[in-house]
Design goal:
- By secondary structure, this protein is of the alpha/beta class.
- The protein has 2 domains: about 160 residues, 3-Layer(aba) Sandwich (Rossmann fold), CATH 3.40.50; about 80 residues, no CATH class.
- The protein contains 8 helices and 12 strands.
- Helix 4 crosses helix 5.
- The longest helix is centred in the last third of the chain and has 16 residues.
- Bound molecules: adenosine-5'-triphosphate and magnesium ion (MG).
- Adenosine-5'-triphosphate (ATP) binds next to strand 2 and helix 1.
Length: about 250
């Protein structure tokens, strides 16, 4: 049986001036799977994620979503497709509190006087934010403080919470555990598997090979802006993955 991928990138090219970040990169995300996207520093992983989530327009190539060609013209367009992203640089609004970050652009309104004026329902948004933090083990002493005052790990928690709160099809996570402690990393990995079990797909970028081997149903390897290998769970050893990343192992 041939199942149609949820999201497919074909031959994506993206250059920044003279830097060729993506040189005809292919990438596939199936339904309800965790796919790890791995590769050395500068291989093009973040650039690929940004072209699939509407931040960068590709110079060439094709993106298919649920089998149909799409142009992901903006992050808003990606969100409308059900795609949420935890960017490597997190992309939070530092002056706002966590709940305002979680609900940025999707604020919960409660009816005002005579139902005409809408007021932001801060209580509802904070409740939801605290529930998401509880799920993720994000420990924040003052939830109403601006996220600029948070630690790196706490900010990473906010970004992950926001993405999983809103995604309906796929969540891209660009090194979501890079700043996290042992306990929070465990929670995020468990969350990734729970999100997958809910029927969503998760794209995990990570340099942590044990983490990749543990949660990924499939691994795609990017090297010098191109996909050079894919492995199903159990197919490759850690040495194979590293070999594909460095070019020591060439997959036929
Ligand atoms: N906005 C940009 N302007 C100019 N060059 C860029 C830009 N974004 C990425 N690049 C370049 O594109 C190449 C790929 O970068 P990218 O961030 O996609 O790599 P990566 O695989 O995510 O690496 P890392 O593991 O270090 O995060 C690099 O050479 C980088 O310098
Ligand atoms: Mg990156």
């Amino acid at each position: 049986m041939v199942t149609q991928p949820l999201l497919e990138a074909r031959g994506i090219v993206k250059s920044f001036g003279r830097v060729h970040a993506l040189r005809g990169a292919d990438f596939t995300v199936n339904r309800a799977e965790v796919v790890a996207l791995i590769g050395d520093n500068g291989a093009g992983k973040s650039t690929l994620v940004k072209t699939l989530s509407g931040v960068h327009a590709p110079d060439a190539g094709e993106i298919l979503f649920e089998g149909a060609p799409v142009t992901v013209a903006s992050p808003e367009a990606a969100r409308e497709l059900g795609i949420e992203t935890v960017y490597q640089d997190l992309a939070l609004a530092p002056d706002l509190e966590s709940s305002a970050n979680l609900f940025l652009g999707r604020e919960v309104l409660r009816p005002g006087l005579l139902g005409r004026l809408g007021f932001l329902d801060n209580v509802a948004m904070r409740d939801r934010t605290e529930a998401a933090f509880g799920d993720l083990g994000v420990g924040v002493q003052d939830v109403q403080a601006p996220v600029a005052t948070f630690s790196g790990g706490q900010r990473q928690g906010v970004a992950v919470a926001r993405a999983v709160t809103w995604a309906s099809k796929v969540v891209f996570m660009d090194e979501p555990t890079a700043a996290l402690g042992v306990v929070q990393t465990r929670r995020v990995l468990d969350l990734i598997m729970r999100v997958r079990d809910r029927g969503l797909s998760v794209v995990l970028i990570s340099h942590n090979m044990p983490e990749v081997m543990e949660v990924a149903d499939r691994v795609e390897v990017l090297r010098l802006g191109q996909r050079v290998a894919t492995f199903k769970r159990g197919e490759g050893t850690m040495e194979d993955l590293v070999g594909a990343m460095t070019g020591a192992l060439v997959q036929s």
